[in-house]
Specification:
With 948 residues, this protein is α/β, with parallel strands linked by helices. It contains 21 helices and 33 strands. Strands 5, 6, 7, 8, 9, 10 and 11 form a 7-stranded antiparallel sheet that branches. Helix 13 runs parallel beside helix 14 and helix 17 crosses helix 18.
Length: 948
């Protein structure tokens, strides 16, 4: 009697203690199953039935095959389950260990994080290393034992193939590489696939030069009219499909639900379900035919690749290894595609990097692959093996018995067929030829390939039966997964799982702690040169929505990263209601480092710069550091606040800004200096004075700096966007008022005009005297123009205030970064802004007004902005509980210098800080080296004349 699984049972008996009754039971079940299969096959070979009973016989045969295959599957599961129980009864389960070779990937890459998270969630102990040669696990165990999963990420494959001996792998070990496929689809020269050099196939639906680098984007042919009577209406499409090969001999492979589609009308790639795209383009009938043709084409190419390395594959045997491939197919006015590119990795060249579609789609496929394979891993050997080769054998008979690797393949395959995932069976398809399924099959034992086809047909018949019985058209488990970004029916319903799958950033941020869907608070640091971060969070559930900063905020945005601390809030919401409901908030606290500084301990040279080479505002001027010669004679006091100047800094060499002590950078006007006003003189010159500020937040920063310098502390502060009046300045002897302009957030018809805002702040500050005891400081970032200055003249004349001191704060750097949701200036527009700034200065001088040229001051240090989306703020306000403010370290030299040895990294005060109770003794400090420079110039102009 022939027992199909007798060797598997003997293997279990030989290698592990097994009770007699259990073995007897399994043996009887296996033998009975085999006999039943033989009876079924004999019935199939008995010849054609009578026509009257042909349909009935076919139906009964299908039902019989369903029943017998079900018994076979049950036997497989019983063997595996009982084996696991016996192993676990001997000692606790051996902890599975995974080795991830990252190659050139950084630890912050989402792909690396994905592997670590998923593996840890399903119980793996994860070890990270760059290459196989540097992995302590692989080096200690000679790459043979001590691990159960080896993942070789892109750029580490060569190291894996060189270091790992696939012929000595044990049955519990899995690698994400199949050497035979890697070789078959390698570049044999100029893109020629290696499989063509071996077998020279002539009728393969594949272009010979389809391998190698995909750095060059494949070109989609120009649209052509379809030939007469061609089934599809002129379809010209390039499709990337993602294939998971889980075995080469016999061949088993799966197709992922998501593809990347590019057409000649829309060459930009889009991730979407291939089935949906074909249905949309071709209709129900042709789309099914095109999908079937596509599967057939890929199957033929994979079979050719497998046959190319038959001998090598026998030696390099890895039972549970797998390979992810990218097939690029071209549909050109035909439902039958041709393979134009095969990559031994998951590639997304046609997808945009800016939208993170590449990495999001890749991460999704990799995550699906891990869950699909590891959830279906049979784990027959849950401890390191000590023996190799095949076990058992039906001695005394001529029947073919299952070896352990065949048993593992069958068990893994049937579990994959029942696992809900985004993968659907590609090969063997239920329609594949099967020697045991036709009347002409020989009397030889069933092969493993035939058993795989029987299993696939069983689930296909099961699906068809379910489809006919309930009429719902339900898809298979493999077809039920939905891509989270595609929308559709699966995107409807309440948000019940408000977690993030990942936070994608460019440049990649190293989050602390590493990202996890269950962790809500993160910190990240970026270098000084990182001025923007693009961020796109992805939710776990497609029915949940993500908004940045607010209920209606964008899904993805560019954030300017100011020096010091900044914060990004990620809101996971349920948008089913008219008003989004916040379900979860994730927060990323980012800290941007100051400019790297090298303290001066010895000889150094003075260097200067007018503008940064990264933003040539004035093309005719030099950029970057230049040697600076100090003035030998004493410098005279500057006669205006807009004297041309440059920044100076001590360095070891002017050719390398990394050798400079940026704590000592200072603004140096050409041929003169702005005198710094000490506090006692400042308090004296501010006596009985009223200073009126009108402008935006940059003007408000100068006001608070003045208040802190006069009072030696700042006890009141707020991000006011209306009118403020401070009467407690200088022991009540001075008054400062402020009016915010322009109120751009209001509807245009409701916004106060500049004239109205100016009259409002003047009215709130009365009584005013028509002399320099009244000071008007007007200006902002980029809203000011020469018309505003004419309005100032008209209002002051009408209000009999023509003799007051007017100080014009000119334009400043800002809006130069590509930030979503606000305007962004091009280089040409910034250069035009510089010309407009010169016009403002000339007009102000014409009216007899003082001018502070903040544009020239901020131009050279435009990267040193602080918080704010406009990248235009060069000041922040810090909050303290101390009874004393930070020490004033203002330099007493004849140059205007920074008041602090460096930019503080403490957070700017939030609006909510203003709500502190009366018992809180909060004080504030205005920080920001650039803001301090032009604010000190303001003070010097206010106190330029000795008052009597």
């Amino acid at each position: 009697m022939r027992c199909l699984l007798a060797s598997a049972a003997r293997m279990l008996l030989r290698r592990r203690p097994c009770s007699g009754p259990l073995l007897l039971l399994l043996g009887v079940a296996v033998c009975l199953f085999y006999q039943t299969l033989m009876l079924a096959r004999n019935r199939l070979r008995s010849g054609p039935q009578r026509p009257a009973t042909d349909v009935r016989s076919r139906k009964s045969t299908d039902e019989f095959m369903m029943m017998e295959t079900r018994k076979f599957i049950s036997t497989l599961e019983t063997l595996q389950r009982e084996t696991q129980v016996q192993v676990w009864s001997r000692k606790p389960p051996w902890r599975r260990r995974a080795v991830v070779l990252t190659g050139q990937h950084l630890a912050s890459d989402t792909e690396v994080q994905l592997y670590q998270q998923v593996l840890q969630q399903i119980g793996y102990e994860v070890h990270m290393s760059r290459y196989a040669e540097t992995s302590s696990v692989l080096r200690t165990n000679q790459g043979v034992s001590g691990w159960s999963l080896l993942l070789c990420l892109s750029s580490s494959e060569r190291s894996c193939l060189r270091r790992v001996s696939f012929s000595h792998l044990q049955y519990h070990q899995k690698v994400n590489l199949i050497p035979g496929l890697m070789e078959a689809f390698s570049d044999a020269g100029g893109g020629l696939c290696h499989l063509f050099t071996r077998s020279h196939p002539t009728d393969l639906p594949m272009k010979p030069y389809s391998c190698g680098s995909t750095s060059q984007k494949l070109q989609i042919p120009q649209d052509r009219r379809s030939p007469a009577r061609a089934p599809p209406p002129g379809l010209v499409t390039m499709v990337n499909v993602y294939i998971l090969v889980t075995s080469v001999r016999p061949l088993t492979s799966f197709l992922h639900d998501i593809s990347v589609v590019s057409t000649n009308q829309d060459p930009r790639g889009r991730p979407m379900k291939l089935r949906d795209f074909l249905l949309q383009q071709l209709g129900p009938t042709n789309s099914q035919q095109a999908l079937g043709q596509m599967k057939q084409v890929i199957g033929e190419v994979l079979q050719a690749a497998a046959s190319t390395n038959e001998k090598t594959e026998t030696v390099n045997r890895c039972v549970l290894c797998y390979q992810l491939l990218t097939f690029t197919l071209l549909f050109s006015s035909s439902i039958t595609p041709v393979t134009v590119q095969v990559d031994t990795d998951v590639t997304f060249v046609s997808l945009s990097k800016d939208t993170f579609d590449r990495q999001i789609t890749k991460d999704l496929i990799l995550e699906d692959t891990l869950h699909f394979l590891l959830a279906t891993h049979p784990h027959l050997s849950s401890e390191p093996e000590t023996e190799g080769g095949q076990y058992g054998g039906c001695r005394g008979t001529n029947s073919r018995c299952l070896s352990e690797d065949e048993f593992l393949l069958l068990l893994q395959f049937q579990r994959q067929m029942t696992t809900s995932s985004a993968f659907q069976l590609l090969y063997p398809s239920p329609s594949s030829s099967c020697s045991s399924c036709s009347s002409s099959s020989s009397s030889s034992s069933l092969s493993v390939s035939d058993l795989l086809i029987r299993i696939s047909r069983y689930y296909e018949l099961q699906r068809n039966s379910s489809f006919r019985s309930d009429g719902t058209g339900a898809l298979t488990n493999q077809e039920s997964a939905v891509y989270s970004s595609q929308g559709g029916a699966a995107d409807k319903g309440p948000c019940v799982d408000p977690r993030l799958r990942q936070i994608y950033t460019d440049p990649p941020l190293t989050l602390t702690p590493p990202f996890s869907p269950w962790v809500k608070e993160y910190r990240a640091e970026v270098t000084f040169d990182t001025v923007t971060v693009r961020i796109r969070p992805e939710p776990v559930s497609s029915v949940c929505r993500v908004h940045l900063d607010e209920h209606r905020g964008p899904r993805m945005a560019n954030y300017p990263v100011g020096l010091g601390d900044s914060r990004i809030s990620i809101l996971v919401t349920d948008d089913a209601e008219p008003q989004p409901i916040i379900m979860t908030i994730y927060t990323v606290h980012m800290y941007r480092e100051n400019r790297p500084s090298l303290p001066m301990f010895g000889d150094h040279v003075m260097c200067s710069f007018v503008q940064d080479c990264g933003l040539l505002v004035r093309p005719g001027r030099s950029c970057g550091l230049q040697p600076f010669i100090r003035y030998r004679s004493p410098l005279q006091t500057c006669s205006s606040g807009h004297a041309p100047g440059r920044w100076v800094v001590p360095c070891l060499s002017c050719s390398d800004n990394r050798t400079c002590d940026w704590r000592e950078v200072a603004w140096q006007p050409d041929g003169c200096s702005h005198l710094l006003v000490d506090r006692s003189l400042l308090q004296d010159c501010m006596m009985d004075r009223k200073v009126l500020f009108i402008g935006d937040s940059t003007n408000r920063g100068m006001m608070y700096f003045l208040m802190e310098r006069v009072n030696s502390s700042l006890e009141d502060w707020g991000k006011a966007h209306n009118t403020l009046v401070y009467r407690n300045l200088n022991k009540g002897q001075s008054l400062v008022s402020y009016s915010y302009y322009p109120q751009f957030w209001l509807e245009k018809k409701k916004r106060p005009t500049f004239r109205q805002a100016l009259l409002a702040v003047a009215s709130r500050s009365r009584p005013l005297v028509n002399s320099d005891l009244t000071v008007l400081v007007v200006g902002g970032v980029q809203w000011l123009n020469t018309d505003h200055l004419r309005t100032v003249r008209e209002v002051l004349d009408r209000e009999s205030l023509s003799n007051i001191l007017v100080v014009v704060k000119s334009l400043g750097m800002g809006f130069h970064l590509p930030v979503d949701g606000i305007r962004s200036l091009s280089l040409t527009e910034i250069q035009d802004l510089d010309n407009e700034n010169n016009n403002i200065i000339a007009t102000a001088k014409h009216h007899g007004y003082e001018v502070i040229d903040t544009f020239s001051i901020t131009m050279g240090r435009y990267k040193e902005f602080l918080q704010g989306r406009c990248a235009c703020h060069f000041h922040e306000v810090e909050k303290f509980r101390s009874s004393r403010p930070p020490d004033d370290t203002t330099s007493t030299t004849n140059e205007t210098r920074s008041t602090r040895p460096g930019l503080s990294s403490q957070s700017a005060v939030q609006d909510t800080d203003q709500e502190a109770g009366p018992a809180d003794t909060w004080i504030y400090h205005v920080r920001g080296a650039v803001n301090q420079v032009y604010s000190e110039i303001l003070l010097s102009r206010l106190c330029s004349k000795t008052r009597t």
